[in-house]
Design brief:
Largest interface: A-B, 36 and 39 residues
Subcellular location (chain B): Cell membrane
Number of helices of chain A: 14
Family (chain B): Belongs to the binding-protein-dependent transport system permease family. LivHM subfamily.
Order of helices and strands of chain A: HHHHHEHHHHEHHHHH
Radius of gyration of chain A: 20 Å
Number of strands of chain B: 2
Strand content of chain A: under 5%
Largest sheet of chain A: 2 strands, antiparallel
Distance between the termini of chain A: 35 Å
Number of domains of chain B: 1
Shape of chain A: globular
Structural class of chain A: mainly alpha
Strand order of the largest sheet of chain A: 1-2
Largest sheet of chain B: 2 strands, antiparallel
Membrane topology (chain B): Multi-pass membrane protein
Oligomer: heterodimer
Radius of gyration of chain B: 19 Å
GO molecular function, one term (chain B): transmembrane transporter activity
Order of helices and strands of chain B: HHHHHEEHHHHHHH
GO biological process, one term (chain B): amino acid transport
């Protein structure tokens, strides 16, 4: 436990001091990495622990962004103060929609959520009040001042740490155990008194809220919001691939996956000099290769090799370790 | 009269949507996999068609369909044998779907980098403009032909699956893979055959769509969503339900288009969501 708290404090220190050392370009990249980690972690909570694979999570990214842009322009208030809306609005919409969406199971849920995201995208695109296809500016951008990149970097960093700590605590709690039991066997979970529906709704809403927050943080420093970017299906693609590569259903997976994603992006774009979307091709190819060769992702392999158990939410067997249910007898 | 024409055109378009969903429904029915890359294979076939018809000018686009279907079937066979068969036995149906999601994304971005993002159409020459009049209604030849092709494909596939030896083997493999294997069936080969068939249907749909509207490498997303809606609305495993669902979506889209000029697929999507509330098992799905 001490080790975990120490690493956390160290991470907080690094995030806190980074703006003093880095220039705006580096801060912007750092913010993007933190935001990417947050959306991937939120997708992972839903898919890896809640058992709900959503292919329409870009909806929450865009809705979070639009919520802050609209409110900030209307109220003439610093957009960073309105960030709670970026969590609240997606969460509420998610709660309203779950009764409909949860009629679909598994792969159907995945594509149904995608259709829903497409509907949001088309609706925003058609709304003249929101600037239609061209999008709309953030008129209150001037309130953020020159240190905008440092500010959003800190917010993104705080969000990333909060997501990590909260997911760890929640998943270790009784609620988390109930959630995972629903993922593993819905009928069995229900029969021992887990409220399957309520658990799923809650985790879906929380996931939407986290992605919405990340979307707003990412979009604010652009001073402009465009439906094509805010509701881009690429966000969900990145969430899916990063989590699959890193390790679905582990808290460390999204961290590792995010690092790999940015390494690929910088490597292909700057290293190989291939512009455009080739880095996405490389990411997709790595995701496909991972699914074929290491379906659990890379973190579990690394963990077993290095004997790390940093953020595992597994509970130790209370009795003698050699009596644990999955204990393997040493080879003779 | 305009309204009757709109509805009729919606029905013709619906025939096309039916074919979009047919290939997807076939793969889902046999392998319990939603092939997210289906839409991108549709777009890839359309690109192959555009290149072939540029390479041999003067040949009717309806003849171009044959080589493209053959290529698409080959791609389907390879796709299933090389990639999909490795994960098909996974007890979690999301694993194969995520794999096709990855393949879809890689295909889309490679096509974007190779063909660019400019919209392309498959030039069908006189055929795309030809029209005739019945009872005062002005109808295009191509849309009517599309619906006819669609009905033939639906009937043909239905016959193949329910009346032939290979159809029996396919159904047996789908129902109980282990026992089919005991009877000497190689499930991997059957799956590859089914995927080849599915992508051949995708190729027909892709070319017919390309003669109708322009497309870009990103069009696969719209195509897969429509195809998926056809499968869900039609109810699982119901071929004719899929055709009717396609028609419902086509009519909705074109009637919506009359009211609201840049609605795109909005009303089709809304119809789908409305149906989820009313009938989660689809039009013809069993309870």
């Amino acid at each position: 436990m001490i080790l975990r708290i120490l690493t956390l404090l160290l991470a907080a220190l690094v995030i806190g001091c980074a703006p003093l050392l880095l220039d705006d370009g580096q801060l912007s990249l750092g913010m993007e990495m933190l935001v990417t980690f947050v959306i991937c972690a939120m997708w992972n909570v839903l898919a890896g622990y809640g058992g709900l694979v959503s292919l329409g999570h870009q909806a929450w990214f865009g809705i979070g962004g639009y919520a802050v842009f609209i409110a900030s322009n209307a109220l003439n208030v610093n957009p960073l103060w309105l960030l709670p809306l970026a969590a609240l609005v997606p969460a509420l919409i998610a709660l309203v929609l779950t009764p409909l969406l949860f009629r679909l199971k598994d792969a159907y849920f995945a594509i149904g959520s995608w259709v829903l995201a497409e509907v949001f995208y088309i609706l925003v695109q058609r709304s003249d009040a929101l600037g239609g296809i061209t999008g709309m500016p953030l008129f209150t951008g001037g309130m953020l001042g020159a240190s905008i990149y440092a500010q959003v970097f800190w917010v993104a960093g705080g969000l990333a740490l909060a997501v990590l700590v909260l997911s760890y605590l929640v998943l270790r709690s009784g609620f988390g155990l109930g959630l995972m039991s629903v993922r593993d066997n819905e009928v069995a979970a229900a029969s021992i008194g887990v409220n399957v529906r309520r658990n799923r709704r809650l985790v879906y809403a929380v996931s939407a809220a986290g992605v919405g927050l990340a979307g707003a943080v990412y979009l604010i420093p652009n001073y402009f919001i465009q439906p094509g970017i805010a509701f881009s299906a690429d966000w969900t693609v990145i969430m899916t691939f990063v989590v699959v590569i890193g390790g679905i259903g582990t808290l460390e997976g999204p961290i590792l996956g995010t690092l790999i994603y940015f390494a690929i992006r910088q490597g292909v774009t700057d290293g190989l000099g291939l512009s455009g979307s080739w880095y996405l091709v490389a990411l997709g190819a790595l995701a496909v290769a991972t699914m074929l060769m290491a379906p659990k992702g890379l973190w579990p392999i690394l963990r077993d090799r290095l004997h790390l158990d940093w953020l595992s939410v597994r509970r130790p067997w209370p009795g003698r370790p050699d009596r644990a249910p999955h204990h393997q007898a040493p080879a003779e | 009269m305009v309204w009757v024409e709109t509805v009729l055109n919606g029905i013709f378009l619906g025939g096309l949507y039916g074919i979009l969903g047919l290939g997807l429904a076939l793969v889902f029915g046999v392998m319990k996999v939603i092939n997210v890359a289906h839409g991108d294979f549709i777009v890839l076939s359309a690109f192959i068609g555009v290149f072939l018809s540029a390479a041999v000018p003067g040949v009717s686009p309806l003849l171009i369909i044959l080589p493209v279907v053959a290529i698409a079937a080959g791609l389907g066979w390879a796709f299933q044998s090389v990639l999909m068969n490795r994960v098909i036995d996974s007890d979690d149906m999301l694993v194969p779907m995520l794999l096709t999601f990855g393949v879809s994304f890689v295909m889309r971005n490679i096509m974007l980098e190779t063909f660019g993002a400019t919209p392309v159409t498959l030039e069908a020459g006189a055929l795309s403009r030809a029209s005739f009049q019945v009872a005062g209604l002005h109808l295009g030849v191509l849309p009517v032909l599309t619906l006819a092709i669609s009905v033939v494909l639906f009937g043909g596939l239905n016959w193949l699956i329910t009346r032939t030896e290979i159809g029996r083997v396919i159904r047996a493999t789908s129902d109980n893979t282990a026992i089919a294997r005991l009877m000497g069936v190689r499930p991997g080969r059957i799956y590859a055959l089914v995927m080849a068939l599915s992508l051949a249907l995708a190729a027909v749909a892709g070319l017919l769509l390309a003669m109708r509207t322009s497309f870009t490498p990103s069009s696969g997303i719209d195509r897969i969503l429509i195809a998926f809606e056809v499968v869900v609305l039609g109810g699982l495993g119901s071929f004719w339900g899929a055709l009717l669902a396609g028609i419902a979506l086509g009519v909705t889209q074109l009637v919506g288009f009359r009211f609201d000029a840049n609605s795109g697929l909005l009303y089709a999507h809304l119809l789908f969501l409305a149906f989820l509330i009313a009938r989660p098992n689809g039009l013809f799905g069993s309870k």
